[in-house]
Design brief:
- It contains 8 helices and 11 strands.
- It is α/β, with parallel strands linked by helices.
- The protein has one domain: Class I glutamine amidotransferase (GATase) domain (Rossmann fold).
- The strands form 2 sheets. It has a 9-stranded mixed β-sheet with strand order 2-1-3-4-11-10-9-6-7. A two-stranded antiparallel ribbon has the order 5-8.
- Helix 1 links the parallel strand 1 and strand 2.
């Protein structure tokens, strides 16, 4: 079976890229590190890949706002190439800083490249959140994450993760089944309570997709828990799927499409 080719996009300040490389490789993909300057200089082209992955980190030092400068760079210099990649059914995932970038390019939530309809604002706690929380898979349009009602532990590491938008935009995101993950409490119910909802994200939203279901953005880090031993209390508490199944399902979908 052909291994899907994954472009793991790097630039100044990117991290979590090596963990993401490991996760994609573990689940049967063929990942490559690609610096944004290689795309701008056309020594690498997105059409060579099946998946575009934007890792977490602090691109360009999170100057102005998290993911903002990389978003401007993508819109300004790679608009046509990215639009073509999306139009030809390439898959896209943005994790943490990658999600912030996708929001600020306009690729999420409504694939309006260059137009922001939502934002990821500073955490309500007023500080960086680094902790394990629980999320639940929702019924959504995401093509590689069918509703499973699965609840799993996952790590968050961010300072600007609070999804916010005008009420009509939030309603549209909810009504069009674009919410993929929600923060939940110990009973599996969506929550605004801190720290189960680590940033105060409206409607407990932790991850969303676009209307085609082929672009996914999420604040938590599935790549940080793909092996049981990556969980702090793994000897006692690991059961069922790890959040790495998000990446695993993405690879399987790419192989079959």
């Amino acid at each position: 079976m052909t291994k899907p080719k994954v472009c793991i996009l790097r630039t100044d300040g990117t991290n979590c890229d090596e963990e993401l490389f490991y996760a994609f490789e573990k689940f049967g993909a063929s990942p490559k590190f690609v610096h944004v300057n290689e795309l701008r200089g056309k020594s690498k082209r997105l059409k060579e890949f099946n998946i575009l992955a934007l890792p977490g980190g602090f691109t360009y030092g999170d100057d102005v706002a998290s993911g903002k400068i990389l978003a401007v760079e993508l819109v300004s210099f790679l608009k046509n190439e990215i639009e073509d990649f999306v139009a030809k059914y390439g898959l896209v995932i943005g994790i943490c800083n990658g999600f912030q970038t996708l929001i600020r390019t306009g690729l999420l939530p409504f694939t309006k490249f260059g137009q922001m309809d939502a934002t990821l604002a500073q955490n309500e706690s007023g500080h960086f959140e680094c902790r394990w929380i629980k999320v639940k898979v929702q019924k959504s349009k995401c093509v590689f994450l069918p509703q499973s009602n699965e609840i799993f532990d996952i790590a968050v590491n961010h300072g600007e993760g609070r999804i916010d938008a005008p009420q009509n935009i939030i309603k549209k995101i909810e009504n069009e089944d674009l919410v993929v993950l929600k923060y939940v409490d110990e009973k599996g119910n969506p929550t605004q309570k801190y720290p189960q909802n680590p940033n105060g994200s409206v409607n407990a939203i932790a991850g969303i997709c676009n209307q085609t279901g082929r672009i996914l953005g999420l604040m938590p880090h599935p790549e940080k828990f793909v092996d049981a031993t990556q969980y702090p209390n793994w000897r006692r508490s690991v059961s069922g799927n790890s959040p790495g199944f998000i990446i695993k399902n993405m690879v399987k979908f790419a192989q079959s499409s």
